[in-house]
Design goal:
alpha/beta; Alkaline Phosphatase, subunit A; 2 domains; eleven-stranded mixed beta sheet; three-stranded mixed beta sheet; Alkaline_phosphatase_core_sf
């Protein structure tokens, strides 16, 4: 604090940053790997408040703290509006940054010609995501989320749906089923060969009344599918060669660690399903090519509510995904979402929707920890890493608070109504309250509680999204293409260009594209002998 009072402190700090900027050179070769981190609802005020909170958790005043994502050298702003909304939702924005086109709110993986809720308008208007294009190019691909894997943000990477809410067939109208539309969970298993799927959403994958493995005595957590499909078994079976399933593994019995082996080039790989942290930790990264982990019936728990012995964190899941995906010599694409920031989406998003700022900011910190962990597991010379948000929230902090004031603390002076108020406030939401003819006074330590609802100006059951631009932070090959103020769908085009994916696969600097829908291609010449050798070894117990 004393040094800050001198001009040398500020001048020398600025000089160091200037020298660093002058030495910065863009990485202009193409990217082998791409990691896209998305903080659902992580607007700029959320990033700033999380920076302070993280710094205060470390014992500092917080304001001068630096998040891992903030060390990325290239920054842009993205305009988040959708075709029909000034203030967007997570489905329309997900289609923009993952598929490269803006579309209508509440629709996934479809152009703007599709109409929300009208099944027949989906056909012929599908658009492919970066994840799908990366898989076709022979890369391994994965999705990691703290919400259900069928949610709008991850759903935009593999699904084509005129309604973001069609999680399972039980959530769809009869007319849509009759017209041939498929639910999002079904599309998760059948649309794209996804190597790693980690998040929540078990109930949408299993037949109605199938007991949940974690909550077997709670019917509300059971499967809800009306079509009788067991999509977890279907997914596992699709990764095996008929007749070569691992002995003792019975399709339809989803024990943590159940494994089904299948034959691919050059020999054995395996698909595995887990539903708790113990099962995830037990997965052998080197022997698994496909991993599905569904850790809750719906969304995963907030970090501040998480059982650390049974539920993996976003950091745990991100690390496991990278360790599995990076084995592919062609590279990988990984989408990581924290949706606890708000309420109808990721957990950042969920926290804000419920007006619980502490939950939202801790989710943001966890996303940043996942960014830091990914940086240690990858090389910025061959991996393009991007951190962004789909939209913001009507969240703010102010009140002329003093340096070092708790981010969840009170403003130093009372309001015009002679009552204290917190620095953090919401423009609308469930935090609106009237007591004794006026606004209740905020107080400590209540305002520091993880479930405290900050006050809101307008009463709503759920706080709304914000419409301002969101940040895009990037490092690695072609990261310099993120600059200035861009439309949100530009993000997908930079990712595709950087990794030589369609429609940029033939651009200068790209090798001839390799297309593979189910993994690396191999020469057919030695396969018969190799198959015989592997089969003999398998039957002999090897």
């Amino acid at each position: 604090p004393g040094a800050e009072k001198t001009t040398d402190y500020w001048n020398e700090g600025a000089r160091r940053r200037l020298e660093s900027a002058l030495a910065l050179q863009p990485v202009t070769h193409r990217a082998k790997n791409i990691i896209l981190f998305m903080g659902d609802g992580m607007g700029l005020p959320t990033v700033s408040a999380a920076r302070i909170y993280q710094g205060q958790l470390a014992g500092g005043s917080g304001e001068d703290n630096v998040l891992a994502m903030e060390t990325f050298p290239h920054v842009a702003l993205a305009k988040t509006y959708s075709i029909d909304r000034q203030v967007p939702d997570s489905a329309g924005t997900g289609t923009a940054y993952l598929c490269g086109v803006k579309t209508n709110a509440k629709t996934l993986g479809l152009s703007g010609a599709a109409v929300y809720g009208k099944c027949h308008t989906a056909f012929g208007n599908e658009v492919d995501s970066i994840l799908h294009r990366a898989r076709l190019a022979g890369k391994s691909v994965g999705i990691v989320t703290t919400t259900r894997v069928q949610h709008a943000s991850p759903g935009a990477s593999y699904a084509h749906s005129v309604s973001r809410s069609w999680y399972a067939d039980a959530n769809m109208p009869k007319e849509a089923l009759r017209d041939g539309c498929k639910d999002i969970a079904y599309q998760l298993v059948h649309n794209t060969d996804i190597n790693v799927i980690l998040g929540g959403g078990r109930m949408y994958m299993t037949p109605k009344e199938t007991p949940d493995p974690e909550y077997p005595d709670d019917p509300a957590q059971s499967g809800i599918r009306k079509d009788g499909l067991d999509l977890i078994s279907e997914w596992l079976s699709s990764k095996e060669v008929p007749g070569l399933a691992q002995r003792g593994a019975v399709p339809g019995h989803h024990r943590a660690g159940t494994s089904y082996k299948h034959l691919v080039c050059p020999c054995w790989q395996s698909a595995q399903y887990v539903w708790d942290k113990k099962g995830l930790d037990a997965v052998d990264d080197d022997s698994v090519s496909h991993l599905m982990g569904l850790f809750e019936p719906k969304d995963m728990k907030y970090e501040l509510n998480r059982n650390t012995s049974t539920d993996p964190s976003i950091v745990d899941m991100t690390e496991k995904a990278i360790r599995i995906l990076r084995k592919n010599p062609n590279g990988f694409f990984l989408f990581v979402e924290v949706d606890r920031l708000a309420h109808a989406g990721g957990r950042i998003d969920h926290g804000h929707h419920s007006g619980r700022a502490k939950q939202a900011l801790m989710e943001t910190i966890m996303l940043d920890q996942a960014v830091a962990r990914a940086g240690k597991l990858t090389d910025p010379l061959d991996t393009l890493t991007v951190v962004t948000a789909d939209h913001s929230h009507v969240f703010s902090f102010g009140g002329n608070t003093l340096r070092g004031n708790s981010i969840f603390g009170l403003a130093p002076k009372k309001a015009k109504d002679k009552r204290a108020y917190t620095s953090i406030l919401y423009g609308n939401g469930p935090g609106y309250s009237v007591r004794d003819g006026g606004r209740p006074a905020a107080s400590l330590p209540a305002a520091e509680d993880k479930d405290y609802r900050q006050q809101a100006a307008v009463p709503l059951d759920s706080e709304t999204h914000g419409g301002e631009d969101v940040a895009v932070l990037a490092q690695g090959p072609m990261a310099h293409l993120f600059h200035g103020v861009q439309e949100q769908h530009y993000i997908a085009h930079v990712l595709a260009y950087a990794a030589c994916l369609e429609p940029y696969a033939a651009e200068p600097g790209c090798r001839a594209p390799r297309r593979a829908s189910h993994g690396p291609r191999c020469s057919p010449q030695p396969l018969l002998a190799l198959l015989a050798l592997c089969l003999a070894s398998y039957l002999a117990g090897g």
